[in-house]
Specification:
The complex is a heterodimer of chains A (170) and B (79). In chain A, 45% of the residues lie in helices and 8% in strands. Chain A has six helices and three strands, in the order αβαβααβαα. Chain B is of the alpha+beta class. Chain B has one domain. The longest helix of chain B has 25 residues. The chains are: A mainly alpha (170), B alpha+beta (79).
């Protein structure tokens, strides 16, 4: 539960951001958030407010692909596993057991919610992962894709951006 | 050797966090084609457009913690 002070602070901040957005008049607004548990409704209120304020196209992103442990820790475990052949191409088999299954379920629920409201929705899991069950830890050159459980490294951002291209309509 | 590798990536990861703010100031475009709004995951999108799609006409608007589009704490390092 937010205090009155927090509510006022948020309202002031949002007003400021919306004023800047209106002035900037971008063609497209991309909205991305972690979508904290039990805060989905509040987040959609904010998105509705943005939609009502500006005429730009809106694109809503799903929560990030989340792993059960920090990705550097997973990478270290993988590197210490002598049974893995790092000279072979592809690393799909490396990551399956480290995915956060509940996070994926929440992403799918939010997708239904977003589509019902008519927003263009991009599911990060579709962009980032190989398939429904397997997401990568490394780039092709064994660069690390994430710096914690879900934030991208610079290598990860480059990887994600290249794959994202075909999902965006601008 | 593996520890060196990990520490190198820790440094890279921290670099990611300063990247957007530096670039946002540098590219203070008043009329961006694309605006990105949200928390730290929106920073990831900004970096992705910048590095993966070579987009420059973009601007990031941060919405801070607890304001609907929540801002998460900085990344941590699990030992």
């Amino acid at each position: 539960m937010k205090s009155e002070r927090d509510v006022l602070k948020c309202a002031t901040k949002m007003k400021s951001v919306l004023t800047k957005l209106k002035a900037a008049q971008p063609e497209v607004v991309l909205i991305s958030t972690y979508w904290k548990k039990n805060e989905e409704a509040e987040a959609f209120e904010v998105i509705d407010e943005i939609r009502d304020t500006i005429s730009s196209d809106l694109v809503v992103f799903s929560p990030p692909v989340m792993y059960s442990q920090s990705v550097p820790s997973i990478a270290l475990k993988l590197l210490n596993d002598e049974s893995i052949d790092f000279t072979s191409s592809g690393n799909e088999h490396l990551v399956n057991k480290f995915l956060h299954k509940k996070a994926k379920m929440r992403a799918e629920m939010l997708e239904l919610h977003a589509i019902s409201r008519g927003y263009q929705y991009i599911n990060r899991w579709d962009v980032f992962c190989f398939n429904d069950k397997s997401c990568p830890v490394f780039t092709e050159n064994w660069g690390l894709l994430k710096g914690d459980k879900f934030h991208l490294t610079l290598d990860g951002a480059e990887y994600f951006g290249k794959r994202l291209k075909s999902y965006l309509e601008f | 050797m593996i520890r060196d590798w990990a520490l190198n990536y820790k440094a890279k990861m921290q670099g990611t966090w300063s990247y957007v703010s530096q670039q946002s100031e540098q590219w203070s475009n008043d009329s961006p084609k694309v605006a990105i709004i949200g928390d730290s995951t929106a920073k990831d999108i900004y970096n992705s457009l910048y590095l993966g799609m070579d987009m420059r006409n973009i601007k990031y608007f941060r919405v801070s913690h607890g304001c609907g589009l929540s801002f998460r704490p900085p990344p941590y390092w699990e030992s």
